[in-house]
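User: Could you write out the 3D structure of this protein bound to pyridoxal-5'-phosphate? I've included everything you need below.
Assistant: Certainly. Input first, then the structure.
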Amino acid sequence: MGIFSEANKYIVGGVNSPVRAFKSVGGEPPFIRKGVGAYFYDIDNNKYLDYIQSWGPLIFGHCNKEIEEAIIKAIKDGVSFGAPTTIEIDLAKEILELFPHLDLIRFVNSGTEATMSAIRLARGYTGKDDIIKFEGCYHGHSDSLLVSAGSGAATFGVPSSPGVPKDFTKHTLLAKYNDIESVKKCFENGNVGCVIIEPIAGNMSLVPADKEFLGELRELCNHYNAVLIFDEVMSGFRASLRGSFDIYGIEADIVTFGKVIGGGMPVGAFAGRKEIMEMLSPIGPVYQAGTLSGNPVAMAAGLTQIKKLKENPEIYKNLEIKAKKLMQGFSEISKEEKIEFNYNVIGSMFGFFFNHKLPKNFDEVNESDTSKYAAFHNKMLKEGFYFAPSAYETGFICTPMTDEDIQNTIDSYKKIAKEI
Ligand code: PLP
């Protein structure tokens, strides 16, 4: 019996997070045994250049020595206490120091927890129940955020999963990414307490917001007294050191962080202005808690990663050069082969579309050829390159990736492009 069949006997769908099952690209997922730098190996010892890097957090690649040592050192002092530790203060300081508009932070265990808690806090702070989210943005799997695209702007959200009552999502209004008119309609139609957005959307491949659109969004939130939440679970410390803040300079009221600030360990966080954050328990009435929140091992990994990033801010430029080289290489080959291809690169993040134009919103992303992506994925995997098993995901470059790695990837794409 193959390992995937064995996994399916015990674990639902053989995986513990759906996209890992390769359903949208076909084939069976390799089971990973070990990572080393830019690469990982499966249980049959096949080697892959890893372009997902645990979906973002491993900027320094697998098994970075300093992060590994910090984890081991922390473990030796105890894996969990459920009581305050000073390393939580250290990581909080390192993060907040970078964002003058964020005063206080709370650590959680995942991105889902961060956005869910941020929404509750925003609702508690404003006393208003309606929220605006954007088609194609993913904020984790909590009920009120699990609302699909497709219902059109300014209509009330329809749950995208059975088990989510309509009553829970009727307060989620859907707007179109990069379309300020659709946001205005939502504000006019509802009693909106908060807007949540990925300022650099990484869950419909990679689609950055237009600067003007984000600026207008900020103004609308001011006008309607709504809390603006930037979900930077993926882009924070990935697109650049300060995520979207470096790129747009726009101040959100709350920013959510995730995996990247844990260096690969399970961490999330939300940070905001004092008057909002002080609504949170134990100071204020909005309840939020977590047995393992601020876990010392996760904090140690995160602290080491964030310090390394702050000490070496030039890495983002270098990673971007590599990401651009990869995408330009793919683009030239696609042109030669008459394949419709467009791409975005922001810092160490890249996204590409088998699409005649560069999408600005989810509808346009959906015009991309997903069967071509599946063929691309399949063939590149056989060549030893692990790209995200879905056309809707972002790719990531890590520091151990060499120019030679990038060139090899381009050469392999040249080889397979004719067949997709
Ligand atoms: N928000 C964004 C922007 C994400 O990309 C993700 C996950 O990829 C989440 C929230 C949810 O994070 P997690 O999977 O850690 O719950």
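The longest helix spans residues 315-336.
User: Perfect, thank you.
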